[in-house]
Amino acid sequence: MITNETIVALSTPPGAGAIGVIRLSGKEAVSIVNKVFAGKDLSKQASHTLHFGLIKDGDTVIDEVVVGLFIAPKSYTKENVVEISCHGSNYIIQQIISLLIRHGAAAAKPGEFTLRAFLNGGLDLSQAEAVADLISSDSEAAHQVAMNQLRGGFSNELNELREQLIHFASMIELELDFAEEDVEFANRDQLQELISKITVVLNKLIRSFELGNVIKTGINTVIAGRPNAGKSTLLNALLNEERAIVSDIAGTTRDTIEELLNINGINFRLIDTAGIREATDTIEAIGVEKTMQKISQTALLVYLFDAAELTQAEIREDILRLYKPGVPFLAIANKSDLSAFKPVNLDLPSDIAFLSVSAKEKIHIEELKQLLYENAIGDKLSTDQTMVTNIRHVEALQRTKAALDSVSEGLVNPVTSDFLAMDIKQALHYLGEITGQVTTDDLLENIFSKFCIGK
Length: 455
Hints:
Layout: E1 7-10, E2 17-25, H1 29-36, E3 37-38, E4 49-57, E5 60-70, E6 81-88, H2 90-102, E7 106-107, H3 112-119, H4 125-136, H5 140-150, H6 153-177, H7 188-217, E8 219-224, H8 231-239, E9 257-263, E10 266-272, H9 282-297, E11 300-306, H10 312-322, E12 329-334, E13 352-356, H11 365-376, H12 391-412, H13 417-435, H14 441-448
Parallel strand pairs: 1-7, 8-10, 8-11, 11-12, 12-13
Antiparallel strand pairs: 1-2, 2-6, 3-4, 4-5, 5-6, 9-10
Helix pairs in contact: 4-5, 6-13, 7-12, 12-13
């Protein structure tokens, strides 16, 4: 899949800015830039050095630039890499890129720089995918998890398991060579012990995906309740800005409003919804239907009710209608400045958390933020632990576990060495898919096509 072409692309975001960085990678990167650079002879300069000069098209000066050199193999792609820092004019950037292409460079495809880093051994596949996660991270936790994976935390854990499995695979393969002698080189008890140990690790990694995916994408948090409960006022209080329209008229919110709130480094996707009631017109009916759809998809539900208006029976009716086992549920009594609320004799599931607030007066809003965090994350987060955030990885781990379950079954109900070898090879194959020891062109194209051009 590696070509001999030297590739070029803009590595900074498109649009006008102070500077733009144009990156080249390939055997001819230095010589191509040297043809258009008026300054030092770049071919005689050391790696990891910067050089000021002009980019010229014949006698025409395009821009004053700083050129950075990264000579193979001491570069991101393990090839010769040149980075040209020019002024961030779209016109200047396109002029320079077009000039470099005329002198032998080829336009890079999405993710091609990171693909070359992977194919040249600079990164394994899970680390390469962590690059994309790092670029898209928009919270402290997402950044730390991506950094841990980029530094090889996930890969190291998998490689350790893989090496132990390879040892037993080789012993069983040896048994096949001596099949007529009916000897066992692989200790079955030790193999069963290893399978149990690996299964524990796999289960931990698979379970971590639920939290890892939340950290990566944010926590869908629906604010639901009856009309005029104060849902939009609460959204504004949490965000500390006037994001939603607030009115005494029931049914003001007809569509969902979504905003991001960062709490302790975790993004919560707050969704303000239409009030739950019998709709009085077609538009409101659509809004209520959307509310119920959002509730069915939420990872955390905030039920807000007017403590001064609703009876205990009405509150219980609403909660039982909205409650879904396994989904954290916060019952928030609003307008606590007008009326005190105590959940008396409601006979509700014990995992429902109650809190009284005043959205209008911003009373106990910080306590609500902490309650949101505790119910969504609690003490489950330790960003230095290995955490799975990629659906491709968790599916491969699940297939690995299924293959090892077959190995374990073959040890309990003894099967011949060739069947054991086949199942172990299958487990090794799926582990290899994660880090890139096992790849296909289609898999790589699917992964790297989602990267931005220039990375």
